Amino acid sequence: MSLKIAVIGGGITGLSAAFFADSKIRESGLDAEYVLFEADNRLGGKISTDHTDGFVIENGPDSFLARKKSAAELGGSVGLNDTLVYNNATSAFIYNSGSLYPMPGGAIMGIPTQWSPFLATGLLSPKAKLRAAADLVLPRTKKGEGDRSLGEFFRSRLGDEVVDRLIEPLLSGIYAGDINDISLEATFPQFQKMEDKHRSLILGMKSSLAKGPGESSGKAVKKRGMFQTYTGGLDSLVEAVSGELRKGAVRTGTAVKQIEKHGEEYLLRFHDGTEEAFDRVIVTTPHHVTASLFGDDPGLAFLRDMTATSVATVAMAFDESAVKEDIEGTGFLVPKGNGFTITACTWTHKKWNHTAPDGKILLRAYVGRPGEEEIVDQTDDEIIDVVLQDLNRIMKLDGKPAFHRITRWYDSMPQYRVGHKQRVTELKEHLCSKWSGVFVAGASIEGIGLPDCIDQGKKAAEEALSAD
Ligand SMILES: Cc1cc2nc3c(=O)[nH]c(=O)nc-3n(C[C@H](O)[C@H](O)[C@H](O)COP(=O)(O)OP(=O)(O)OC[C@H]3O[C@@H](n4cnc5c(N)ncnc54)[C@H](O)[C@@H]3O)c2cc1C
């Protein structure tokens, strides 16, 4: 009898799981079939692109890290190579006490690798620069085994000011979290490895740059940027991947309510009252949904208790003439404690050429961070007013946008707290013993970036097809 696999969730993780299951079944002639269930009426989850008046507006993610190859490879295998582009890598800025400062050249994730730009920056005090240089002589900071927070790690190596003004805005921009809570092991284990091997983070980073000209080296960054996307928008990836799936294998508008174990089978109960049995189940929904699918099983408590930050993206289209004072660069980050509501703004039309028609500009601001999430609940008009007020403290904008798109993403940024990796291991062990043949993957589990989600989807498909 044919092996039946259910994939729950049609975001990039679920789509990847279905895509790789499909390829493997076809290539190896396996007697297996899969069905992907998506609650919404569209696929893509957090990936959502708006195409209005020649603009390409990303409502969720706008790109992926080029260093992690799986997103570009997935796009390549569905015929998107021709539309794959790198971002323009002119200066990005950090705001502090009334001024914008260019990101110091050679600072990778805030870790200095070139001394002259680091010493020259006005973003940091002389004392902070001296403290960061102490990384070169300080002993290894790790006391015993186990995880610790990104904040604790970077503060101990480079000092508070470098963390608060440079590293925190960069990292919390990615995780929308408090770096004093976020797990080092689950997010950037390579930095711990650097300390283990080289003792100094600065020396470790320099050594990793010296090994190859990859996109993280200062030189390559200048040439072509560290990120990639598709000129047709990230939804072109969703469309192309879903277009490769078996006819009839995708059921949108179908929310799964519960997974029940019946002997060797799993019965999926749907919100419309129907049910269907499967041999394997891949669950790629956000963690609070995933936990609810397993009833009150205490083995899923970790996902039930996990928190997530609500954020919103605020895209605004203007005529070029609306900008009274132009700044050369791709955008800026605002560290906490500067009295701003926005956490960052991308000058999208400068970062990505394809996103705005000639003569137009596209700005994308971000709001919402831990402890400052109530802004997400405000009306569009209120949000636009606050965002314009903030932007006008930095750049001179004339009037209101021609149109805007505000996308509220409630509980969308899962928080990987210290100990996350260990709890994921325990969760997987629990599933293996009590729910053998059920696999969890996605943004809440082993990486929130698009390439990480794709890798997880692929791995889950392989496990589902090979499990006994
Ligand atoms: C504003 C924002 C900006 C971001 N920017 C970037 C970026 O630039 N680069 C990057 O790499 N990453 C970025 N990320 C992170 C990245 O977009 C996400 O981590 C990733 O898209 C998550 O994919 P996923 O498939 O795991 O989950 P999701 O995209 O959340 O997909 C889960 C799917 O499950 C469905 N679902 C829910 N309940 C049920 C149910 N009961 N039954 C069936 N289906 C259900 C949902 O409708 C959804 O489609 C960003 C995230 C946000 C919110």
Q: What small molecules does the structure contain?
A: flavin-adenine dinucleotide
Structural class: alpha/beta
Contiguous uncertain segments of 5+ residues: 214-222
Strand order of the largest sheet: 8-7-16-17-18-15-19
The overall pLDDT average reads: 94
Terminal Cα separation, in Å?
Answer: 14 Å
Count of spatially separate domains: 3
Q: According to CATH, what is the class of the largest domain? A: Alpha Beta
- Going by CATH, what is the homologous superfamily of the largest domain? FAD/NAD(P)-binding domain
For the record, the CATH architecture of the largest domain stands as 3-Layer(bba) Sandwich
* Beta fraction: 15-25%
Number of strands: 20
Tell me the CATH topology of the largest domain. Answer: FAD/NAD(P)-binding domain
Q: Would you write up a description of this structure?
A:
- It catalyses: coproporphyrinogen III + 3 O2 = coproporphyrin III + 3 H2O2.
- Pathway: Porphyrin-containing compound metabolism; protoheme biosynthesis.
- InterPro entries: Amino_oxidase, FAD/NAD-bd_sf, Protoporphyrinogen_oxidase, Zeta_carotene_desat/Oxidored.
- With 468 residues, the protein is of the alpha/beta class.
- The chain folds into three domains: 3-46 and 236-306 and 416-466, FAD/NAD(P)-binding domain (3-Layer(bba) Sandwich), CATH 3.50.50; 103-221, protoporphyrinogen ix oxidase, domain 3 (Orthogonal Bundle), CATH 1.10.3110.10; 308-414, Protoporphyrinogen oxidase, mitochondrial, domain 2 (Polyamine Oxidase, Chain A, domain 2).
- The chain is 35% helix and 22% strand.
- The chain is built from 17 helices and 20 strands.
- Strands 8-7-16-17-18-15-19 form a seven-stranded mixed β-sheet.
- A hairpin with a 4-residue loop joins strand 12 and strand 13.
- Helix 1 (12-28) packs across helix 17 (450-466), helix 2 (70-77) packs across helix 17 and helix 8 (189-198) packs across helix 9.
- The longest helix is centred in the first third of the chain and has 17 residues, at 12-28.
- It is globular.
- Bound molecules: flavin-adenine dinucleotide.
